[in-house]
Amino acid sequence: MRSAADVMARARSPQGQKAIRYTLVSAISVVIGQALLALFYNVVHWSAAWSNIWAVSISAGPSYYLNRYWAWGKRGRNHLLKEVLPFWGLALLGLAFSTWSVHYAEHHWHGSAIAIQAANLFGFGVLWVAKFVIFNELMFKHHPQDLPPALDGRTGVPT
After folding, report:
1. How many CA atoms are closer than 13 Å to the CA of 10, on its beta-carbon side?
2. Using one digit for the tens of pLDDT, what is the confidence trace for 73-87?
3. Can you tell me the distance from the alpha carbon of 123 to that of 115, in angstroms, rounded to the nearest whole number?
């Protein structure tokens, strides 16, 4: 069992800070996605599947940018093969699984809005941990060749 000091030290580490920011981005994305899902399903009266497709599609953009720039601190151009395609591939996987989940919930729980919201959360919850590992180790990992050259403290010239 870890002490409170160990937990705090881990939370203050660069890896712990990334995990905290990733969790906060996920929470923001969940709030946006759930609000949109509820709006489209309960107010606009679309099917659960169409409501989910639109909610996920709209909330994925802010999630990408918040993850890239804030959670992982990446700057500069987006890398198509290392960042953009994997992120959107995972988003599509989440979209497909959550859409199947909400469709299932709508038909098996007779359109219960709570069941549909829970099915959406379940669909994305399954991928949440896997996405952290993929984002951290593959997509947004800082590589030494991507960093700007170090500057000499006296002259300001690259070393």
Report:
1. 8
2. 888 888 888 888 888
3. 12
Site of tokens 């960093």: 147
Q: What are all long-range contacts of 129-137, with beta carbons under 8 Å and residues at least 24 apart?
A: 131/90, 132/19, 132/22, 134/86, 134/90, 135/22, 135/67, 135/71, 135/72, 135/87, 136/15, 136/18, 136/22, 136/72
Instruction: Name the strand (E) or helix (H) holding 29.
Output: helix 14-38
Query: CA triplet 107, 109, 113: central angle to 5 degrees?
Result: 100
Whole-angstrom distance, CA of residue 106 vs CA of residue 52? 11
Contact 140, 83 (CB under 8 A): yes
pTM: 0.75
